[in-house]
Write a structure and sequence with these properties.
By secondary structure, the protein is mainly beta. β10 and β11 form a beta hairpin. The radius of gyration is 20 Å and the shape is globular. 37% of the residues are buried.
Length: 216
Protein backbone atom coordinates (compact mmCIF):
# COMPACT_ATOMS: atom_id res chain seq x y z
CA UNK A 1 0.00 0.00 0.00
CA UNK A 2 1.34 3.40 -1.00
CA UNK A 3 0.90 6.19 1.55
CA UNK A 4 0.88 9.76 0.31
CA UNK A 5 3.38 12.25 1.70
CA UNK A 6 0.54 14.36 3.13
CA UNK A 7 -0.93 11.43 5.04
CA UNK A 8 2.51 10.46 6.30
CA UNK A 9 3.13 13.99 7.61
CA UNK A 10 -0.27 14.01 9.34
CA UNK A 11 0.50 10.64 10.94
CA UNK A 12 3.92 11.78 12.20
CA UNK A 13 2.49 15.02 13.63
CA UNK A 14 -0.30 13.12 15.38
CA UNK A 15 2.24 10.68 16.82
CA UNK A 16 4.43 13.52 18.16
CA UNK A 17 1.42 15.27 19.69
CA UNK A 18 0.37 12.07 21.47
CA UNK A 19 3.93 11.59 22.70
CA UNK A 20 4.03 15.16 24.07
CA UNK A 21 0.69 14.67 25.82
CA UNK A 22 1.98 11.45 27.36
CA UNK A 23 5.12 13.17 28.65
CA UNK A 24 3.10 16.12 30.01
CA UNK A 25 0.68 13.74 31.72
CA UNK A 26 3.59 11.86 33.26
CA UNK A 27 5.14 15.12 34.51
CA UNK A 28 1.97 16.19 36.30
CA UNK A 29 2.21 13.13 38.57
CA UNK A 30 4.94 14.74 40.66
CA UNK A 31 5.27 17.56 43.16
CA UNK A 32 7.84 20.04 41.84
CA UNK A 33 9.92 22.92 43.16
CA UNK A 34 8.25 26.31 42.81
CA UNK A 35 4.79 24.76 42.94
CA UNK A 36 2.12 26.18 45.25
CA UNK A 37 -0.12 23.58 46.85
CA UNK A 38 -2.20 22.50 49.80
CA UNK A 39 -1.00 19.57 51.89
CA UNK A 40 -3.53 17.13 53.32
CA UNK A 41 -3.13 14.92 56.39
CA UNK A 42 -4.56 11.54 55.43
CA UNK A 43 -5.62 10.49 58.95
CA UNK A 44 -7.58 13.59 59.95
CA UNK A 45 -8.41 14.94 56.48
CA UNK A 46 -7.19 18.45 57.37
CA UNK A 47 -5.01 20.75 55.29
CA UNK A 48 -1.84 22.32 56.70
CA UNK A 49 -2.78 25.90 57.50
CA UNK A 50 -1.42 29.14 58.93
CA UNK A 51 -2.59 32.73 59.47
CA UNK A 52 -1.53 35.91 61.22
CA UNK A 53 -2.41 34.53 64.67
CA UNK A 54 0.38 33.98 67.20
CA UNK A 55 0.59 31.33 69.88
CA UNK A 56 -0.25 32.62 73.37
CA UNK A 57 2.29 30.22 74.89
CA UNK A 58 5.55 28.58 73.88
CA UNK A 59 7.48 30.48 71.23
CA UNK A 60 4.78 33.09 70.62
CA UNK A 61 5.42 32.68 66.89
CA UNK A 62 2.81 32.49 64.13
CA UNK A 63 0.60 29.46 64.73
CA UNK A 64 0.13 26.42 62.50
CA UNK A 65 -3.14 24.50 62.42
CA UNK A 66 -5.06 21.97 60.35
CA UNK A 67 -8.31 23.00 58.69
CA UNK A 68 -11.07 20.96 57.09
CA UNK A 69 -11.97 23.87 54.79
CA UNK A 70 -10.85 23.06 51.26
CA UNK A 71 -11.34 26.63 50.01
CA UNK A 72 -9.29 28.51 52.63
CA UNK A 73 -6.62 30.64 50.92
CA UNK A 74 -4.35 30.45 53.99
CA UNK A 75 -3.57 26.80 53.29
CA UNK A 76 -1.24 27.44 50.31
CA UNK A 77 2.46 26.54 50.59
CA UNK A 78 5.33 27.12 48.15
CA UNK A 79 7.89 24.32 47.78
CA UNK A 80 11.45 25.68 48.10
CA UNK A 81 14.68 23.73 47.49
CA UNK A 82 17.61 23.45 49.91
CA UNK A 83 19.28 20.26 48.68
CA UNK A 84 21.07 21.54 45.57
CA UNK A 85 22.01 24.99 44.31
CA UNK A 86 21.78 23.67 40.73
CA UNK A 87 18.14 22.58 40.86
CA UNK A 88 15.68 23.85 38.25
CA UNK A 89 12.31 25.41 38.88
CA UNK A 90 9.78 22.69 38.09
CA UNK A 91 12.15 19.85 38.94
CA UNK A 92 10.43 17.00 40.85
CA UNK A 93 11.07 16.88 44.59
CA UNK A 94 13.15 13.77 45.29
CA UNK A 95 12.60 11.50 48.26
CA UNK A 96 15.27 12.47 50.79
CA UNK A 97 15.47 16.10 49.64
CA UNK A 98 15.61 18.88 52.21
CA UNK A 99 12.94 21.48 51.53
CA UNK A 100 11.26 24.52 52.99
CA UNK A 101 7.52 25.09 52.95
CA UNK A 102 6.84 28.82 52.68
CA UNK A 103 3.38 30.04 53.63
CA UNK A 104 2.09 31.89 50.61
CA UNK A 105 0.07 34.58 52.43
CA UNK A 106 2.55 35.57 55.16
CA UNK A 107 5.87 34.54 53.51
CA UNK A 108 6.96 32.72 56.67
CA UNK A 109 8.40 29.19 56.73
CA UNK A 110 7.06 26.04 58.37
CA UNK A 111 9.23 25.78 61.47
CA UNK A 112 9.83 23.73 64.60
CA UNK A 113 11.97 23.78 67.76
CA UNK A 114 12.01 22.44 71.33
CA UNK A 115 8.93 24.30 72.58
CA UNK A 116 5.85 22.41 73.76
CA UNK A 117 2.69 22.59 71.70
CA UNK A 118 -0.17 24.41 73.50
CA UNK A 119 -2.80 21.65 73.64
CA UNK A 120 -1.14 18.23 73.68
CA UNK A 121 2.35 19.04 74.97
CA UNK A 122 4.04 17.59 71.88
CA UNK A 123 6.67 19.53 69.93
CA UNK A 124 5.41 22.91 68.72
CA UNK A 125 5.12 23.65 65.00
CA UNK A 126 5.08 27.31 64.01
CA UNK A 127 5.77 29.72 61.13
CA UNK A 128 9.00 31.71 61.25
CA UNK A 129 11.19 34.05 59.16
CA UNK A 130 10.59 36.91 56.78
CA UNK A 131 10.11 36.54 53.00
CA UNK A 132 11.47 33.00 53.11
CA UNK A 133 14.57 33.91 55.14
CA UNK A 134 14.70 32.01 58.43
CA UNK A 135 17.06 29.51 60.05
CA UNK A 136 17.80 25.77 60.20
CA UNK A 137 14.56 25.21 62.12
CA UNK A 138 12.75 25.74 58.79
CA UNK A 139 14.31 22.70 57.12
CA UNK A 140 12.36 19.48 56.48
CA UNK A 141 13.32 16.15 54.91
CA UNK A 142 10.83 14.59 52.49
CA UNK A 143 10.41 10.88 53.26
CA UNK A 144 8.70 8.71 50.66
CA UNK A 145 8.98 5.26 49.12
CA UNK A 146 9.56 6.24 45.47
CA UNK A 147 12.41 8.13 43.84
CA UNK A 148 10.39 11.35 43.80
CA UNK A 149 7.35 12.84 45.57
CA UNK A 150 4.42 11.39 43.65
CA UNK A 151 1.21 13.41 43.95
CA UNK A 152 -0.91 10.29 44.36
CA UNK A 153 1.17 8.88 47.23
CA UNK A 154 1.59 10.01 50.82
CA UNK A 155 4.86 11.36 52.21
CA UNK A 156 6.27 12.28 55.61
CA UNK A 157 8.11 15.43 56.66
CA UNK A 158 10.92 15.00 59.18
CA UNK A 159 12.33 18.08 60.91
CA UNK A 160 16.08 18.26 60.31
CA UNK A 161 17.09 19.87 63.63
CA UNK A 162 14.97 17.74 66.00
CA UNK A 163 14.11 14.58 63.97
CA UNK A 164 10.41 15.07 64.79
CA UNK A 165 7.74 14.19 62.21
CA UNK A 166 5.03 16.61 61.16
CA UNK A 167 1.75 15.34 62.59
CA UNK A 168 -1.74 16.18 63.84
CA UNK A 169 -2.57 15.74 67.52
CA UNK A 170 -6.32 15.42 66.99
CA UNK A 171 -7.06 18.23 69.46
CA UNK A 172 -8.88 21.39 68.39
CA UNK A 173 -8.43 25.04 69.33
CA UNK A 174 -11.00 27.46 70.69
CA UNK A 175 -11.11 31.16 69.82
CA UNK A 176 -9.80 32.87 67.74
CA UNK A 177 -9.17 29.74 65.60
CA UNK A 178 -12.14 27.72 66.78
CA UNK A 179 -12.36 24.17 65.45
CA UNK A 180 -8.94 24.11 63.80
CA UNK A 181 -6.66 21.22 64.75
CA UNK A 182 -3.31 21.35 66.49
CA UNK A 183 -0.31 20.52 64.28
CA UNK A 184 2.64 19.04 66.17
CA UNK A 185 5.97 17.30 65.90
CA UNK A 186 6.15 13.68 67.12
CA UNK A 187 8.90 11.09 67.51
CA UNK A 188 6.70 8.20 66.34
CA UNK A 189 6.84 8.19 62.53
CA UNK A 190 3.53 6.25 62.33
CA UNK A 191 1.43 8.63 64.44
CA UNK A 192 -0.71 10.56 61.92
CA UNK A 193 2.37 11.56 59.92
CA UNK A 194 1.12 10.80 56.39
CA UNK A 195 0.54 13.79 54.09
CA UNK A 196 -0.56 14.08 50.44
CA UNK A 197 -0.43 16.85 47.87
CA UNK A 198 -3.94 18.25 47.45
CA UNK A 199 -5.09 21.23 45.36
CA UNK A 200 -2.44 23.41 43.79
CA UNK A 201 -0.56 24.93 40.89
CA UNK A 202 2.26 22.69 39.72
CA UNK A 203 5.28 23.95 37.76
CA UNK A 204 7.12 21.80 35.21
CA UNK A 205 10.53 22.36 33.58
CA UNK A 206 9.18 22.88 30.04
CA UNK A 207 6.73 25.54 31.18
CA UNK A 208 7.66 29.10 32.10
CA UNK A 209 4.26 30.09 33.52
CA UNK A 210 2.56 28.16 36.28
CA UNK A 211 0.28 25.41 35.01
CA UNK A 212 -2.92 24.86 36.96
CA UNK A 213 -4.11 21.28 37.32
CA UNK A 214 -6.59 21.54 40.17
CA UNK A 215 -8.84 23.98 41.95
CA UNK A 216 -6.91 26.24 44.29
Amino acid sequence: MIVSVDKLVIFICAFIQCLNLSVASHATQFVTYGSVLKILNTDYNVRLHSHDVKYGTGSGQQSITGTELKEDINSHWTILNLTSASYQRGQPVKCGDTIRLQHLSTKKNLHSHHFQSPLSGNQEISCYGEDGVGDSGDNWKVICSDDVWNRSNSVKFQHIDTDAYLSVSGRTFGRPINGQMEIVGVTNSYKSTEWKAAEGIFVHPSQQPLKKHDEL
